[in-house]
UniProtKB/TrEMBL annotation:
PANTHER family, per the entry: PEPTIDASE U32 FAMILY, TRNA HYDROXYLATION PROTEIN P
Keyword Transferase tagged: no
Molecular function terms, GO-annotated: peptidase activity
InterPro entries associated with the record: Peptidase_U32, RNA/ubiquinone_mod_enzymes
Protein name in UniProt: U32 family peptidase
Family stated for the protein in its record: Belongs to the peptidase U32 family.
Species per Swiss-Prot/TrEMBL record: Campylobacter corcagiensis
Pfam families associated with the record: Peptidase_U32
Length: 418
């Protein structure tokens, strides 16, 4: 079997570091105004973006830049400058949605690979081959494509890499071809400013034109989340997908999601890929880890079954469901924690750390770190910051860095079951 690349989202420099720490083979990010995630693009400066590229390469990972918006005429000259900058910075690949920008990339960033964005909606080998002839070395397949078609594309265009989304938010529209945000909010989804109007709750009415009567269909006062797609989760199918030898890269969606989301998803799919290659795949392990995340409910999307074969792809009840665990803190340096929830003395928090990281058991005046049921736990005896100021408890948003009883792996989290 061919081992696929694990590609993780890097919404900012910290999330990029987390993705690498938890086992990503590659990361994708953006800076500037030409990505479909302008919010995350604003979290990078040219300096931190450059630092991220260097760090990824130092760790032996690839760095892909997204320029996958649909530009209008006034943006073309700036896109040329942007592509040249990305080429000069040494990104490994550029994710692009339109033929015109592909041609610009070949001219202004000739050393970077061209990856065709999922926004281009490639569903068959004819279109895949056309884009390959135009210069694309990889396609990010349309989310609506099934696995058999991916296998057929690889058979017909063997030198073309295929990347699929393995986890993350699902768009209500066909591969992002949506105008709801533009109509309701004046924010254009295909230019990077989607307001996620499909996540809103709506009230439905029926009107009789002859009598002028208007009836409210939904009796629930909160309305219904009629367009709220569940989140994609293909963790149970990782081994099946790998065995086709057709997929070159597994992509996790979520540049605007939390630091813990990046850590948890990267960790779970790293385990799933490695276990599948080692012949010890156990879907229940990865499903349990991913269930710790807040989510909209999970669906296997369209890769392994057809949309018309099921009616479980929408969450009509609520915009977001609580995961099985809550994140309470993160340590970036391993020495002190930033609060993400509530930290209390005498409470045991599970330590969530990168795989194979070394954790030592200790017991001192600050707290204790111990192992129980194959997991490591931390219990604070005192909550002190670096200036020895002590707190009774620490809430989310408190900027004080709380000392750890011992050095932990960088980007470890403290979490607790709800």
């Amino acid at each position: 079997m061919k081992k696929p690349e694990l590609l993780a989202p890097a919404g900012n420099l910290t999330k990029l570091k987390i993705a690498l720490a938890y086992g990503a083979d590659a990361v994708y990010a953006s800076v500037g105004s030409f990505s479909l995630r302008q919010r995350s693009a604003r979290e990078f400066t040219i300096e931190t973006f450059t630092e991220g590229i260097k760090l990824a390469h130092k760790k032996g990972a690839k760095f892909y830049a997204t320029v996958n918006g649909f530009p209008v005429n006034v943006q073309i000259e700036n896109i040329k400058k942007h592509l040249k900058m990305l080429g000069d910075l040494g990104v490994d690949g550029i994710i692009i949605a339109t033929p015109g920008v592909i041609n610009l990339a070949k001219e202004f960033a000739p050393n970077a690979q061209i990856h065709l964005s999922t926004q281009a909606n490639v569903m068959n080998y004819l279109d895949a081959n056309i884009y390959h002839q135009m210069g694309a070395s990889r396609i990010v397949a349309a989310r609506e494509m099934n696995l058999k078609d991916a296998v057929k594309i690889k058979e017909m265009v063997p030198n073309l890499e295929i990347e699929i989304f393995i986890h993350g938010s699902m768009c209500f529209a066909y591969s992002g071809r949506c105008l709801i945000s533009a109509v309701q909010s004046g924010r254009f989804s295909n230019r990077g400013a989607c307001a996620n109007d499909c996540r809103f709750n709506y009230e439905l009415y029926a009107k009789n034109e002859e009598k002028g009567t208007l009836f409210r269909i939904e009796e629930d006062s909160s309305g219904t989340y009629i367009m709220n797609s569940k989140d994609l989760n293909l963790s149970s199918y990782v081994e099946q997908i790998i065995k086709t030898n057709a997929i070159d890269s597994f992509k996790i969606e979520g540049r605007t999601k939390s630091e813990y989301y990046v850590a948890c998803t990267t960790n779970a799919y790293r385990m799933a890929i490695d276990d599948a290659m080692a012949g010890k795949f156990d879907a229940s392990i990865y499903e349990k880890e991913l269930a710790t995340l807040n989510n909209r409910g999970f669906t296997d999307g369209y890769l392994v079954s057809r949309p018309f074969e099921k009616n479980s792809t929408q969450n009509l009840d609520e915009v977001l469901e609580q995961g099985t665990h809550k994140t309470h803190a993160i340590t970036e340096d391993g020495l002190s924690f930033k609060s993400k929830g509530m930290l209390k003395k005498g409470v045991s928090y599970e330590i969530f750390a990168p795989q194979n990281a070394e954790i030592l058991e200790v017991d001192n005046e600050i707290g204790r770190i111990y192992k129980q049921n194959s997991k490591f736990w931390l219990e604070f005896k005192s909550l002190k910051n670096e200036n020895a100021k002590e707190f009774d408890e620490v809430h989310s948003g408190n900027l004080n860095a709380i000392l750890s009883p011992a050095k932990l792996p960088e980007f470890s989290f403290l979490r607790k079951e709800n």
